[in-house]
Amino acid sequence: MDNSAPQKREDMEQIRIQWQNKVFLLLIAGLVVRLAIAPYLEHAATYETMEEIDLLFVSGYNPLELVAAKGTTYYLFHVPARVIYSVFNIFGIYSYSILLFSMKIPALFCDVVIFYVLYELTFAVTKDKNKSLSIGLIYFFNPYVIIFLVQGHADQLVSMFILLSFLFLIREKISYSAISLSLATFVIFFPIFLLPCFLVYLWRLG
């Protein structure tokens, strides 16, 4: 009886598990680096916005009504962070580092998604797992990307939705692609200029 086929499947499964473990460990390492330096870096604009919000609150105004000029990033980053910070306040913990770190949680999540999407996009083009993983790691361990993220920017959110829209597009999931591009435009307006590219691609698909 030929046992080569079951043995081959078992070997392939073992390779797949080893591959998944390798990717998981690399993701953990990248997140550890981000988490380690996140409490110590802050963008000047973030600090300015937080000072304005505190001043409005102390003056008796509702910041939710008066900071619309700050754009959607205020509602996506500052408001959830304030909610988390308020929970700590209940227990008598008033640490500015907690508030600052809470604002970076969405960007940390977005970075993991970007790593995955870059892997999937590259694999769709090259059909090579090693090249795909390399592209994802070049992004995920890029010092500029790490420093940029932990300063508290919203660009990771925009980049995530744009890349997701491309991934859904090449997979011909047009509705999901349109939703992703719309969400990117909701955060900041410039992704709308990608719409003609999407329309041309769809036209060529017929």
Could you give a quick summary of the protein structure above?
Helix 4 packs across helix 5. By secondary structure, the chain is an all-alpha fold.
Defining key terms:
206 residues; mainly alpha; 11 helices; globular
Task: Give the SSE order as H and E letters.
Answer: HHHHHHHHHHH
Estimate percent helicity. Answer: over 70%
Question: pLDDT below 50 for ≥5 consecutive residues: which ranges?
Answer: none
Distance between the termini: 51 Å
Rg (C-alpha, Å)? 21 Å
Total number of beta strands: 0
The quaternary structure here is single chain
The dominant shape is: globular
Count of runs of 4 or more consecutive helical residues? 11
Main β-sheet description: none
Which class of secondary structure composition applies to the elements?
mainly alpha
Q: What's the overall average pLDDT, rounded? A: 80
Strand content: under 5%
Layout of helices and strands:
Layout: H1 4-37, H2 44-58, H3 63-66, H4 72-90, H5 96-102, H6 105-126, H7 129-140, H8 143-150, H9 155-170, H10 174-187, H11 195-205
Helix pairs in contact: 1-8, 4-5, 6-7, 6-9, 9-10
Model description:
With 206 residues, this protein is mainly α. The protein contains 11 helices and no strands.
